[in-house]
Amino acid sequence: MNAPAPMTPPEVLTALGASFRLHEHPEVTSPPEVCAALGVPLERTVKTLAFVTPGDRLLLAAVPGHARLRYGALARAAGVRRNDLSPADAGRLARAGMRPGGVCPVSADRAAVVVFDATVGGLGRVHCGSGRPDSSIEIEAAELLAAVPAAATAPIADLPATAPA
């Protein structure tokens, strides 16, 4: 007998009573492609990178779409060694109700470790992965963080310097 499919991030958000909009778009995998499909600036997106730690634990790192992840800072915030971070494969993501190209910090995997960059909460209304590469979630950043109450918040991203005026 097959186990039931895990809840997708939109199903988790719905169960939590979160207010969000789901936007369908062509299948895309990079933040710039998502921005082009939705007509939103990269600064208004949250990208989530997925890793597996020893013991097959899922680690989700959510950073502003235009930022670069600081792997050492993520490892410290998650309480693991930098060398223990391995990219999550499609099979591991599927067990969390997601597919590559649509990773979301909200997951059906209750054992997942989630770390938000310290700047995410102040971004206002953002777009993030929905668990699928052909749709995105639009949600208030504060509500996104509230949907993952056990998440850590830490300075895990490097933001690009603003261009001179």
UniProtKB/TrEMBL annotation:
Matches recorded under Pfam families: tRNA_edit
UniProt-listed InterPro entries: YbaK/aa-tRNA-synt-asso_dom_sf, YbaK/aa-tRNA-synth-assoc-dom
Superkingdom as given in the UniProt entry: Bacteria
Any one Gene Ontology molecular-function term assigned to this protein's record: aminoacyl-tRNA deacylase activity
Record SUPFAM superfamilies: YbaK/ProRS associated domain
Span of domain YbaK/aminoacyl-tRNA synthetase-associated: 25-145
UniProt protein name: YbaK/aminoacyl-tRNA synthetase-associated domain-containing protein
High-level lineage: Bacteria, Bacillati, Actinomycetota, Actinomycetes, Kitasatosporales
